[in-house]
Design brief:
The chain is an alpha+beta fold and about 190 residues long. The protein has one domain (about 5-190). The chain has helices at about 10-25, 30-35, 115-135, 145-160, 165-180, 185-190, and strands at about 5-10, 35-45, 50-60, 65-70, 75-85, 90, 105-110. Strands 1-2-3-4-5-6-7 form a seven-stranded mixed sheet, sandwiched between helices. The longest helix is centred in the middle third of the chain and has 19 residues, at about 115-135. The chain is globular, with a radius of gyration of 16 Å.
């Protein structure tokens, strides 16, 4: 698997990217501010097929992020990501988020929903992980780029470690992602056991 990495956008590119994300109805800046999220950066995403750019907001005092992805077809997808002691919890909008298995200690749920609903579902997922796995969000001021790079490297290494992983992709694409979409962390944990 190829390693994904970020490069910061210029001020002009950042303004253009944010304009496209907001105009596409991908995110509501007032909701972000009211919820406590602050801009964390805008990036070119290298080696992530179909992604033209990424804008990120960070929740003050936590390593929780709203990541918006501007796709090459001008569609906007978004994830809510919280870094945990063992990995991360990601709550995504697209069922394609469920395509690949996640590295041990990381969790993924996806719903076709608005950012406020995804954020609520994310909070519910964190509560479930705290209750049943004793996992809590990490706090601190680590840069998003570091969290992103570390998570992508861990994910890539995990997938590459799976025997015959390229031959599993059709199953993951046609079956797995649909089975797991619109399910909470609690439901997914039951599915995995």
């Amino acid at each position: 698997m190829r390693r994904v990495f970020l490069s910061p956008c210029s001020q002009r590119e950042t303004a253009d990217l944010l304009k496209q994300v907001v105009c596409a109805g991908g995110i509501d800046a007032q909701w972000l501010m009211a919820t406590g999220f602050e801009p964390a950066g805008a990036f070119h995403v290298e080696r992530m097929s179909g992604v033209a750019g990424m804008a990120v907001w960070k929740l003050e005092g936590e390593r929780t992020y709203i990541c918006t992805y501007l796709l090459v077809n001008n569609q906007v997808l978004f994830d809510v990501v919280t870094m945990l002691e063992s990995g991360m919890l990601t709550t995504g909008k697209s069922k394609d988020s469920q395509l690949l298995p996640y590295a041990p200690g990381s969790y993924m749920q996806s719903f076709t929903a608005t950012p406020p609903v995804l954020y609520r579902r994310h909070q519910e997922g964190l509560k479930t992980l705290r209750q049943f796995r004793n996992l809590v969000p990490l706090v601190g001021s680590r840069a998003f780029e570091e969290d992103f790079s570390e998570a992508m490297a861990k994910q890539s290494a995990y997938i590459s470690s799976l025997k015959l992983w390229p031959f599993r992709i059709p199953w993951w694409y046609f079956v797995r992602r649909s089975q797991r979409h619109e399910k909470t962390i609690a439901q997914l944990e039951k599915l995995n056991s």
